[in-house]
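Okay, is this right?
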Amino acid sequence: MHAGDRRPHHSGARSVSETEHGFIRAATPGKRSAVTVVAMAAPTRPPSASSAPVAPAPPERRGRWIDDWRPEDPQFWESTGKTVARRNLFFSVFSEHVGFSIWSLWSVLVLFLPEPVFGIDPAGKFLLTALPTALGAFVRLPYTFAVARFGGRNWTIVSAALLLVPTVATAIVLEPGVDYGTLLFVACLAGVGGGNFASSMANINAFYPDRLKGWALGLNAGGGNVGVPVIQLVGLLVLATAGAEHPRIVLWVYVPLIVVAAVGAVLLMDNLTMARNQPQAMREAARERHTWIMAFLYIGTFGSFIGFGFAFGQVLQNQFTDSFATPLAAASLTWLGPLLGSLIRPFGGSLADRFGGALITCWTFVAMALGALVVWTASRLESLPLFVVGFVTLFVLSGLGNGSTYKMIPAIFRSQALQAVAEGGGAEAADRRALRMSGALIGIAGAVGAFGGVLVNLAFRQSFMTTGTGDSAYLAFIAFYVVCVAVTWIVYLRPGRPLGRV
């Protein structure tokens, strides 16, 4: 903070403009600056300057650092915060979007690997799509911590630049005669794109006030998810114009986009010094039963979305071989479901805001079980139109569920905070716990939920290996969704439940 000024301190060579920072009072060298830490949960009482935790003024740091950030203050938000937050949101969405595209790269590349040329059977191709899903899930937790450790802008630069590794490596080795083990290795590298979601959500969560988090996080997640159908459309375009012999074109298209994401973060994004890692919160969240319940439910929603997105093209080629004899035919449909599922995710959050996340999530799982039943029936009847309708419906429903489950997280801890206050506990302590636990649960649920994509691909792999169809996998999905319905109702909806409305 600049002494005698009314601008929040923004260190580094480039400063936020006078217009953007026209509100907050500066802290003089001997004083402390109030910093409001925000996370997913809504506070049980309105924040005030007197109740905000205080910390020593942070030291000078190189780069674009904002030392005082108070999005819950309406005057600050309108005069300063909104513009800065939107700028960071735009580039966060773009970087996450490219990350999702690289993460789902092999859902496209397997269509360029005809078995007679590369010698890879359907089971081997499902493994090529399962590995990046697994690594992407694994890196989500460290990516969540990286934002507070290095800064949101700084980590966006690093995470975007890391996308060049799998992209360039794959472009170098992908040719007929390449060893299958080499392909497994470079496919695994693509998993770094899956971590971008976790760091992007953690970063944007800190920029927005509680009343706008649902919209901002929904837009951030949905914009990132769209990266899956976009790379599939790029693959379709390459197949239609250059043919299946030129998969490297897909990779070279993304190299400049990765560079733009990294450079955009360098020039126009910001770090917040108020962001702090809280390993104790992660340990506390790991002991909270709702953490694992929500992670389980997120396996059903996001795990289904990303797993189906990776596998759909291969399922079409193997389930309806006569209709999808060429990669181009399969690619012409693979993008539709992921696109609709991505676009509808913010709507799922909006419905949860209005009717409650648990209610929307429960009915979403009911509909997903019915959708999987339609897919199983279509498979048995060998009806391609019904099969496509059922699968696209599953994509849409999983997108709705992604939005509603994420809205349940702050609601759970907000309800616990209200109960604690009603029982005589301190409101400020209850608020802090709700905020801390919500942030920790977001990271854990995102990581565990992504492993659902691995399970989906492994289920398809086993089903096609043993029966030659996906029927066994569809029955497993139906059973899982029924269990998710029961869990959601018993824990969050049944009469007499411990928690209030979630």
Summary: DSSP finds 20 helices and five strands in the chain. The two ends are 40 Å apart (CA to CA). Residues 278-502 form a domain with the Growth Hormone; Chain: A; fold (CATH 1.20.1250.20). The chain has two domains: 62-67+86-276, 278-502.
